[in-house]
Write a structure and sequence with these properties.
The complex is a heterodimer of chains A (557) and B (242).
Chain A (H helix, E strand, L loop, with lengths): L1 H24 L10 H28 L5 H27 L4 H4 L6 H34 L6 H11 L2 H17 L6 H28 L6 H11 L1 H10 L1 H10 L4 H34 L14 H7 L6 H14 L2 H24 L3 H9 L6 H16 L14 H6 L4 H29 L5 H28 L8 H5 L3 H27 L4 H30 L3
Helix pairs in contact in A: 1-5, 2-3, 2-5, 2-9, 3-5, 3-7, 3-11, 5-6, 5-12, 7-12, 8-15, 10-11, 11-12, 14-19, 15-19, 17-19, 17-20, 17-22, 19-20, 19-23, 20-22, 20-23, 22-23
Chain B lengths: L1 E10 L4 E11 L3 E6 L6 H8 L7 E6 L2 E2 L4 H6 L1 E4 L11 H12 L3 H14 L15 H13 L5 E5 L7 H16 L3 E5 L3 H7 L2 E6 L2 E6 L1 H8 L6 H10 L1
Parallel strand pairs in B: 3-8, 3-9, 6-7, 7-8
Antiparallel strand pairs in B: 1-2, 1-4, 4-5, 9-10
The chains are: A mainly alpha (557), B alpha/beta (242).
């Protein structure tokens, strides 16, 4: 068993590592990894926020004589995250990965395949757990006065932390796939995963607003202390429903080594038993859920001559045909569509939800309408469009999304600059939706005068156009064409991040220029901004076209 | 007509030569078979002919149009079928064919008659409104073939076109190929099925390690080797063994 497992793991590691490298670099070059620090930098604010939050929890707990609460909170949050997302990781790796059809005919035990996949997910989980649990462990280790024995225990506990939730996710997934035909509905599964992500994002936003209102983040120690006191029942329930969190906390709690060691042993034993249970269940049920379900055959109907004549009656220009192709391929790939619509779904929630929690909303809106004539209002409107554009992955992955079908585009007798134009028009469609949202927001806030309407409409479309071209340029430079599932093309595409950084830079420049125009030539503020984006759209458009003509020939698959 | 003149292509920063100073001409009214062992450089050559790969040196002309300098004009002359039939799975067959028709500017009336004819002869008429992701490998291969033939181009370039086709479809394709060259057009295709090459081709070339090691009609190949009555398989095996 160990020989097979080692061989399987080796292949998993090689493919994961190469995938990561190619995703970062956009090719086989190792230089792309140099971008890793830049990507990590993007997570710095989140990490800082988590650290501050845990420090608050630690201080609050310590004031009550229960500093270890920080450990319990971190372990519980970590395990819940692991458990929830685990189901999607597990189903994706166990059932939807391409190598499954290759592995099943091999003389391997089901548990060997499952274990190898499980371990590779586990390694990924450590990276996820690090920013969630790491800060709490460091804070407790430094400030709770623990002895040196804390270190080996904390290391083992960190390594075993995701095991139990992942085993539970695996057991749930194995049974689910055995009794349902979800394997045939790969796209549905991916959409469910996306929806879960959005729900968690919204939930986190809601909780953080709630926490802020209750003074947890701003009220300092006293705020947290009062929450902990109020939520004593919740803490006790956590201990009851997440006994593993309690065991881990007790094992690491300062000043109770004897009791802690027992809890530690109990936790390790349960983790090992969980693994054994998973191996047993995998042996019984894994192949049953994994075999078959690959082929789908839609029940089509034969077209009559008349129907065929009708369907082929309309000849379109190449640009229009390419534009329609972009629409169909994105709309019919749920993972793409989700990602394209996310900014438009999330943005209003994130802006509107905190506003609805404000009690004096009516008064605030009333005051805002007094400023409807301010030249800054349309600038802010265009800024909102730009912000939404920065979250959009439509243009930034337009080339990448073609994946293995890119050969078709490259062999078509249509200039690449025209092909890119079709992709740009497609992204502009989403830009137009962003403009509509911004205009709707302005109407809601009663600042939408006719002039503001024209300014935001024209400025917003031009801004979206410029950003569409700039994102396309990024994707043309380093497209991610070698993906096996659509999420890699869009969600896991670093081009979106680079495109976003570029748009943020533009927002900065816009703010600077607006400030200058506001100070020196107030009436020219919005016409100036519009002119700026018109020039930018023209320049980026020319550059994207020329680059496409060059890159479509260079990119060899 | 296809004119390949002193074309070379390397991978891995010039360390691995996939095609080495290759020259050949395929004349109108001719079926040209391109043979060779796996990894010999067949697909690389074909990808260079259709503009998917750029030669490191040398020129390729399709009916007088240089594929590097006049790519759009050259591509308009070509029907290309790759070795792996990968097309947009989210489209239906008809949507894909309409897309190809739009791109190549096939008028509505011709489009209708060609789709009707090819879908019938390749037995895909009942699947026109189905999404491509419900197709088997062979059905996808047939669809790519129909797409390639939609605009009635003078030069066909087919990479392993028989792979995945059922016997009836393979037979139909062979008939279409013969019909195409009878009309004075050009056909270049690669295959591992030597019996097919022997039966169909006016001339063949055998490529090994990026270089053409033999080229000509079957009789010419036999004469060069001084052995009459040898099959193409015998010639191929002996030439590629060395």
């Amino acid at each position: 068993m160990m020989t097979h497992l080692r061989a399987l793991l080796r292949v998993q590691m090689i493919t994961t590592w190469r995938g990561l490298r190619e995703n970062m670099g956009g090719g086989k070059s190792k230089w792309g990894l140099l971008l890793l620090p830049l990507a990590l930098l993007g997570f710095a604010p989140l990490l800082g926020m988590i650290t501050v939050m845990f420090f608050g929890v630690f201080l609050g707990g310590q004031a009550l004589g229960r500093g270890e609460v920080v450990l319990m909170v971190a372990f519980t949050v970590g395990q819940i995250a692991c458990l929830t997302f685990g189901v999607f990781y597990v189903i994706s790796a166990f059932y939807f990965s391409r190598d499954i059809t290759l592995l099943i005919p091999m003389p391997l035990r089901p548990s060997e395949i499952v274990l190898s996949k499980f371990i590779s997910i586990l390694l990924g989980e450590y990276l996820t757990m690090l920013p969630i649990v790491g800060p709490a462990l460091v804070i407790y280790g430094i400030f709770a006065g623990v002895s040196w024995t804390f270190l080996p225990f904390v290391l083992v506990i960190f390594l075993l932390l995701p095991v139990i939730p992942l085993v539970l996710s695996s057991l749930f997934s194995i049974v689910l796939m055995r009794v349902t035909n979800l394997r045939r509905n790969r796209d549905l599964f991916r959409v469910l995963g996306g929806l879960l992500g959005i729900s968690i994002g919204l939930g986190f936003n809601y909780l953080s607003r709630l926490g802020a209102r209750n003074g947890a983040f701003h009220g300092g120690v006293n705020g947290v202390q009062s929450i902990l006191e109020q939520q004593q029942g919740l803490l006790d329930a956590t201990f009851r429903y997440f006994p593993t969190s309690a065991w881990m906390t007790n094992a690491l709690k300062a000043g109770a080594p004897a009791f802690g060691f027992g809890a530690f042993l109990l936790f390790v034993a349960v983790a090992v038993l969980a693994l054994v249970a998973m191996v047993w269940v995998a042996e019984k049920l894994f192949y049953g859920g994994a075999v078959g379900g690959e082929e789908t055959r839609a029940a089509g109907k034969k077209l009559t001559r008349e129907e065929l004549a009708k369907e082929t009656a309309q000849a379109r220009t190449p640009l229009w045909a390419l534009f329609l192709r972009e629409i169909k391929l994105l709309n019919r790939t749920p993972a793409f569509l989700m990602q394209a619509l996310v900014p438009m779904i999330i943005m209003p929630f994130f802006v509107v939800m905190p506003m609805l929690q404000e009690k004096e909303l009516g008064q605030v809106i009333g005051k805002l309408s007094d400023y409807a004539g301010s030249p800054l209002v349309p600038v802010v409107g265009v800024g909102v469009v730009l912000f939404m554009a920065s979250m959009s992955a439509v243009a930034g992955t337009a080339i990448s999304r073609e994946g293995k079908h890119f050969w078709i585009s490259r062999s078509l007798p249509v200039l690449p600059r025209v092909q890119v134009q079709a992709k740009w028009l497609h992204s502009l469609l989403f830009g137009a939706l962003n403009v509509v949202m911004a205009l709707g927001g302005m109407a809601f806030l009663k600042v939408l005068t006719p002039l503001n309407f024209v300014y935001v409409l024209v400025g917003g479309l031009l801004a979206s156009g410029a950003m569409g071209y700039s994102s396309l340029i990024v994707d043309l430079i380093r497209p991610t064409l070698k993906w096996t599932n659509p999420q890699q093309a869009m969600k896991g595409n670093y081009n979106v991040l680079f495109g976003m950084l570029f748009i943020w830079l533009t927002i900065g420049i816009l703010a600077g220029l607006s400030a200058l125009l506001y100070i020196f030539a107030k009436p020219l503020l919005m016409p100036g901004v519009i002119l700026l984006f018109a020039l930018e759209t023209y320049g980026f458009g020319k550059a994207a076209g020329a680059l496409a003509d060059k890159r479509y020939v260079q990119i060899e698959d | 007509m296809i004119e390949i003149n002193a074309v070379s292509k390397s991978y891995g920063g010039g360390t691995k030569k996939a095609v080495d100073n290759l020259s050949l001409t395929v004349k109108p009214g001719e079926i040209f078979g391109f043979l060779g062992p796996n990894g010999a450089g067949k697909t690389t050559t074909i990808k260079m002919i259709v503009g998917l790969l750029r030669p490191d040196s040398g020129t390729i002309r399709i009916n007088g149009c240089d594929i590097t300098n006049q790519p759009i004009e050259a591509k308009r002359q070509i029907a290309f079928v790759p070795d792996t039939p990968e097309v947009y799975e989210k489209l239906t067959e008809l949507e894909y064919l309409n897309f190809i028709g739009d791109i190549y500017g096939v008028p509505a009336i011709e489009r209708h008659s060609r789709i009707e004819r090819f879908a019938e002869v390749f037995e895909l008429a009942g699947a026109l409104s189905e999404r491509i992701n419900s197709y088997s490998h062979g059905m996808q291969q047939k669809l790519v073939l129909i797409g390639a033939l939609m605009h009635n181009p003078p030069v066909w370039i087919l990479d392993e076109p028989m792979v995945g086709l059922d016997p009836r479809s393979a037979h139909t394709l062979k008939e279409l190929m013969a019909e195409h060259v009878r009309a004075g057009n050009t056909l270049f295709f690669s295959t591992h099925v030597l019996e097919v090459a022997e039966k169909l081709c006016d001339r063949v070339a055998i490529i090994k390690q990026g270089r053409i090691i033999a080229s000509g009609t079957l009789d010419e190949l036999r004469q060069t080797r001084g052995q009459s009555g040898e099959s193409l398989e015998d010639i191929f095996l002996e030439l590629t063994e060395r």
